[in-house]
Amino acid sequence: MKYISGIYALNIPDPTEQTTGDWHWGALDWTHIPLFETQDSIYGDYGIRRDAKVPHAPGNARYNVANHIRALLDMLVAGQFGLAGGMRDDFICNDALTPEVFAKVWQLRHAANWSEIDKFMGSEYFMQWEDYKDGRIHTTTAAPQGPHP
């Protein structure tokens, strides 16, 4: 399924997610919207709103559109860290969504650019990201607990 993502999706209001997104829609060329393909992504159709009105597109056209979390995840996969900068405090701005963000980013831990993704997440979420990673690593490698015979 083709969909709008990245910086374009961040500039489309998404009230269902309670995120702020971006506010520089006028700087984008809405007559040539790049489209992504769900089949090419680890995330499949996660976070895609179907048949959404795109107010900045000519004729208020309707497209499948990534929500703001999905748009940012796609940007991390593509290595667009400069554009994704401000993920936490400028685009998502909702700490209640942090567990979902972390779980989805953690799915990228085997990606070729994981070290860059990890560094980016540390710069956005600081110790909260480090604590999450420590918990995930210890959870997956910890020995079983319980009484010993």
Task: Explain how this protein is built.
Helices cover 41% and strands 11% of the residues. It is an alpha+beta fold. The chain has a two-stranded antiparallel ribbon. Strands 3-4 form a two-stranded antiparallel ribbon. A hairpin with an 8-residue loop joins strand 3 and strand 4 (62-66). The N and C termini lie far apart (55 Å). The model is unreliable at 141-149 (pLDDT under 50).
* β-strand amount: 5-15%
Roughly how many Å is the radius of gyration?
17 Å
The number of strands is: 4
Low-confidence runs: 141-149
The helix fraction, in percent, is 40-55%
Number of helices: 7
Tell me the overall shape: globular
Largest sheet: 2 strands, antiparallel
User: How far do the termini sit from each other?
Assistant: 55 Å
